Amino acid sequence: MKKLPVYLIMILLSAVMLYPLLWLLGASFKSNREIFSSVWFIPKSINFDIWKNAWKTVTPYTMGHYFANTFMIIIPKTIFAVTSSVLVAYGFSRFNFPLKRFFSALLVIGMLMPAIVKVMPMFLFWRDTKLLDTYVPLVFPALLAEEGMFVFILIRFFDSVPREFDEAARLDGCGTMKTLFLVLLPCIKPAVTSIAVFTFLWTMNDFLNPLIIIQSVEKYPLSLALRLSVDSTGQSYEQCRIIAVSVIGLIPSIAVFALAQKKFVSGITAGGLSG
Amino acid sequence: MKHRQYKNPVGVGKYTGLLLISPFIAGFILFTLYPFVCSFVLGMTDYRSAGTPKFIGLDNYKTMLSSESFRKALSVTLKYAAILVPLKLIVSLLTALLLNLEIKGIGFFRTAFYIPSILGANLAVVIMWQYLFTADGLVNQFLELFGASPVSWYGDPDASIYIIIMHRLWEFGSTMVIFLAALRDIPRELYDAAKVDGCGYIRSFFSITLPQIKKVIFINLILQTISALQEFNAPYMITGGGPLRSTYTVGMLIYDEMFKYSEAGYANAVSWILFAVIAIAVGLMYLVTGRRERNGS
Question: Which chain A residues contact residue B268 at CB under 8 A?
């Protein structure tokens, strides 16, 4: 019974945290008037016409087109980010090499550098290399372990795997890469899943980079298509349509999070940054 | 970061590790070092996006110092960070402490608190946030329900910043899980010993928990400060910087100067000043916490 107040706080806080999202889901079936006249999230009637309209969008393309664009960025980016961060973290965790302390420091410095300073020089760089309005600027950096945080988390996981595992593998004749893939990777699977899920979610959320890089509507990812629907329908009308577009756009993130939830949350809780 | 010192396996040369981390080295040079140097150089030029950069020394910095809009943006950004960061750390830590009490249903609560932090930055949710605070939006509907008078969130320059602050505070889950991981790492024996010595919750929090997670608090403080001082997305989408520039952050100023007014040189100078502000803030925190650590032990 002593814990009753704790439960009350937890339940109240969960309501504050989740209610806006429930409200968003409900509002996607509501008319404009109903959205702003009732705090209750469940719509009076389910009207799928709003969703159908939203799917068509105000552009010549359907939401399906923007989904496809987004996945053309996300899939290679996720593969690249996982591969490069695993290799780099493996190098840091398991090998000695010249200037190792120096490079470890660079890893931390890279994480502390404010991203906003990089925005413009990189824009000019991609403009001068004629790669603006392509997906290269959005995908390629992942190949070079751009996300220091991922390397950091993976190093912690690699460090937690006993060295004896590697030594046994080496005695059985495994080389550097075979040891990584056959022995170590299976041990750090939760961390790898976390990184893949993070890359997915962050890319879904990314707004500033596509805004600067992608110019033609045909190539827009979901986030820019969403902004377009806000800009072109005007602020005062058709909120219900914009909300429906938003909910459709959130489905992939929610689905991925739900599928990976167990491994993902345990991965970040165990890996965290502590230590 | 600590690396245990081991010998490389037999037959592995000293360059194998270097080869493995080579993507990182290339990435650091191309995506961190290059843009920082480039930005510094451009900051001392007069550079309209179409023309060629012309060296003008520190003129951009002089313009900035006398610019009313820069000073306003800087004060908005500092105020925003000064309110948001401590608030977010306190909420995250308190929630993590409650979750750590071995209550039932922790999995549900942890997920419920975490979800906003991964969906919150999504444009869809940012747009939703905008609707929550309209004159007849959900927040005002609730305020009226409880008998309070509605707030003109977008009209009142004193209220508007709190739309953004509440949005970021709502995303406290990512900070909370880091605290939770740190709390889990504290050896249970310490608490058992404290109990034997007759320490209550409050006492053991201050003499065991806090010292044990000091480092993680510091990391969270720095990460949150860095991201708060760069705020761009939320004000850009939710308030557009208004009313009366009360939510117009330095991040928005940089974006506008670059992409709206094509003043690349000036924009880079502003971003270097922002970088300097962040570096000073982080440096101060480092000094303050470092001194306390030395005095304490």
Answer: 120-121
**What confidence score (pLDDT) does residue A87 get?**
96
ipTM for the assembly: 0.87
pLDDT tens digits, one per residue of A41-83:
777 777 777 788 788 877 788 889 999 999 999 999 999 999 9
Contact list in B for residue A93 (CB cut-off 8 A) is 3
Tell whether B243 lies on the interface with A, counting CB pairs under 8 A. no
Mean pLDDT (whole number) for B210-216? 88
3-state class (DSSP) for residue B55: strand
- Residues near A274 by Cβ (< 8 Å), separated by ≥ 6? B178, B181, B182, B185, B213, B215, B216
Q: A121, B18 in Cβ contact below 8 A?
A: no
What's the whole-number mean pLDDT along residues B43-59?
A: 83
Higher-pLDDT residue of A269, B289: B289
Number of neighbouring beta carbons within 10 Å of residue B219: 17
**Token pair for A8:** 């009350």
Provide φ and ψ at B257, rounded to 5°.
-60, -40
Question: What pLDDT, on a 0 to 100 scale, did the predictor assign at position A273?
Answer: 43
Asked whether residue A157 carries a pLDDT value surpassing 70, the answer given is: yes
Q: Kindly state whether B74 is in contact with chain A, defined as any CB-CB distance less than 8 angstroms.
A: no
Residue B234 at interface with chain A, using a CB cutoff of 8 Å: no
pLDDT band at B219 (very low <50, low <70, confident <90, very high): confident
Query: How far is the C-alpha of A67 from the C-alpha of A65, rounded, in Å?
Result: 5
Chain B residues touching residue A110 (CB < 8 angstroms): 28, 32
The pLDDT score that the predictor gives to residue B297 is 39
Nearest to B254 by CA among B241, B238, B239: B241
Mutate to test the interface with A, among B8, B20, B145 (most CBs of A within 10 A): B20
**Chain B residue closest in CA terms to A108:** B1
Question: ω before B243 within 30° of 0 (cis)?
Answer: yes
pLDDT of residue A232: 66
| Residues A163 and B6: beta-carbon distance below 8 Å | yes
Task: Return the HEC string of A35-97.
Answer: HCCCCCCCCCCCCCHHHHHHHHCCCCCCHHHHHHHHHHHHHHHHHHHHHHHHHHHHHHHHCCC
Whole-number Cα distances in Å, A4 to A8, A9, B234: 6, 9, 36
Give me the residues of B, 92-111, that contact A with CB < 8 A.
Answer: 95, 98-99, 101, 103, 105, 108-111
CB atoms near residue A114 (< 10 Å) = 20
Q: Mean pLDDT of all residues in chain A?
A: 86
